[in-house]
Amino acid sequence: MHDPPPPINDEDTRLFRESVGKIRRLRNPSSTPLEKPRPAPQPRRLQAAVEDVYAAPYIADFNPEQIEVEEELAFLRAGYSPKILRRLKRGKLSIQNELDLHDLNVSTANAAIHNFLEDSRRHGLRCVKIIHGKGLGSSPRGPVLKGLTDYLLRRTQDVVAFASARPAHGGTGAAIVLLKRPG
Fold this sequence. Notes:
This protein is α+β, with helices and mostly antiparallel strands. 30% of the residues lie in helices and 13% in strands. Helix 4 links the parallel strand 2 and strand 3.
């Protein structure tokens, strides 16, 4: 057990003030936020509402049998520096939110991705993760949700780049997505 610190006397206060020097008091310190507050976390594994499925972009031209998906996903929109994709692949950006597509069908996953990206942009988030899984339970045609994720992200204009996650964040079963700056 530690002894309580000795009380602060006038000499200690004087020495502290001399060592710190001149100070300028804040007008109202309680109203000055130190950092931007993060949005409250929201569960993402729940099935999207039926109306969300119909509100999402139509994916009639998505055919998982015609899309070949590499083991690792990587995409950089034209006009952006390759450094961005390298930083994304190396895990140098902080993930601000995530969406888990496990147990969703294609139409529900489509709506969930669309809503998640819209919500992320609305809250000013730049780097998010979409967990699509590796497709181990898929039929011989391959990982359907991974293919859908790749397909939709390439067609979303607010997506600057995306890449498969580092092993600690889901590896080839997740994509880290960089969104355009708001504004």
